[in-house]
Automatic annotation (TrEMBL):
<protein>
    <recommendedName>
        <fullName>Protein arginine N-methyltransferase domain-containing protein</fullName>
    </recommendedName>
</protein>
<dbReference type="GO" id="GO:0016274">
    <property type="term" value="F:protein-arginine N-methyltransferase activity"/>
</dbReference>
<feature type="domain" description="Protein arginine N-methyltransferase">
    <location>
        <begin position="92"/>
        <end position="249"/>
    </location>
</feature>
<dbReference type="InterPro" id="IPR055135">
    <property type="entry name" value="PRMT_dom"/>
</dbReference>
<dbReference type="InterPro" id="IPR025799">
    <property type="entry name" value="Arg_MeTrfase"/>
</dbReference>
<keyword id="KW-0808">Transferase</keyword>
<dbReference type="GO" id="GO:0032259">
    <property type="term" value="P:methylation"/>
</dbReference>
<dbReference type="InterPro" id="IPR029063">
    <property type="entry name" value="SAM-dependent_MTases_sf"/>
</dbReference>
<keyword id="KW-0489">Methyltransferase</keyword>
<dbReference type="GO" id="GO:0005634">
    <property type="term" value="C:nucleus"/>
</dbReference>
<dbReference type="GO" id="GO:0042054">
    <property type="term" value="F:histone methyltransferase activity"/>
</dbReference>
<dbReference type="Pfam" id="PF22528">
    <property type="entry name" value="PRMT_C"/>
</dbReference>
<keyword id="KW-0949">S-adenosyl-L-methionine</keyword>
Length: 260
């Protein structure tokens, strides 16, 4: 509706969920049915009322940016419907990693299993760490600078490039025990007259996406000035492409995560 109010000749909305029926009612309630056409279905399967569009707008971002693989659908729409020189909004994004030293959080999540009403259940630690947590981390507990691990130009990237392996180097800013790595993303609308961007960094205002926490089963002791060098791999799960399989290797350790 914002696009229609801004002067678009026609707006086409596509959504597979039943909420689109409420969206249709809202469009009619605001007298915009002559400008807005809503279609229920998968973008890859529906037929649009026109062969090309000038602008594609989508809030496709998932937790850790790529969770749920919604960007794949945007790239399909780009390749099949966007005119040459058309706009994608947003048009650029990047993934980043920092180290976290939050012993209280680590204790609450993992040390609990060391003594459960007098019984040791440490085997449960692995079951807990394999699932990344989505939460707002305490920025005061961040113990390194940030490292960009993935840069995506949505105007040109291919679906195959969204699975990636990237080296990273984190400069440690103070002594402490690294208890987790934290992932976040930045979003840019770089082709507008007035450039707009936002970040899901722990140092910015919190958003719906929060941050993604990759707990370490055992903390990693570091000192100020040390460089934490590692490698992160992120791939769609073969059985469930909406899920992510993530591996972080650092200082001879390997931690595997499944985001579902």
């Amino acid at each position: 509706m914002f696009a229609a109010k801004a002067g678009a000749r026609m707006v086409i909305g596509v959504d597979q969920s039943d909420v689109i029926y409420q969206a249709m009612d809202i469009v009619r309630e605001n007298g915009l049915e002559y400008k807005i056409k809503l279609i229920k279905g998968r973008m890859e399967e529906v037929e649009l009322p026109m062969s090309k569009v000038d602008i594609i707008i989508s809030e496709w971002m998932g937790y850790f940016l790529l969770y749920e693989s919604m960007l794949d659908t945007v790239l399909y729409a780009r390749d099949h419907y966007l005119v040459k020189g058309g706009l994608l909004l947003p048009d650029h994004c990047s993934l980043h990693l920092v180290a976290l030293a939050d012993t209280d959080l680590h204790k609450n999540e993992l040390r609990f299993w060391d003594d459960v009403y007098g019984f040791r259940m440490t085997c449960m630690r692995a079951a807990v760490t394999v699932d990344p947590s989505v939460l707002v981390v305490n920025k005061e507990k961040v113990i390194s600078d940030s490292c960009k691990i993935k840069d995506i130009d949505i105007c040109t990237c291919e679906v195959s490039s969204l699975d990636f392996t990237s080296p990273f180097t984190l400069d440690v800013t103070r002594d402490g025990d690294v208890t987790a790595f934290v992932g976040y993303f930045d979003i840019d609308f770089g082709h507008l007259t007035e450039q707009i961007s936002f970040s899901t960094s722990p140092f910015h205002k919190s958003t719906h996406w929060k941050q993604t926490l990759f707990l370490l089963e055992e903390p990693l002791s570091v000192v100020k000035g040390e460089k934490l060098e590692g490698r992160i791999t992120c791939r769609k799960n073969r059985k469930d492409p909406r899920s992510l399989d993530i591996t972080i290797r650092v200082n001879g350790r390997t931690a595997k995560y499944h985001m579902q």
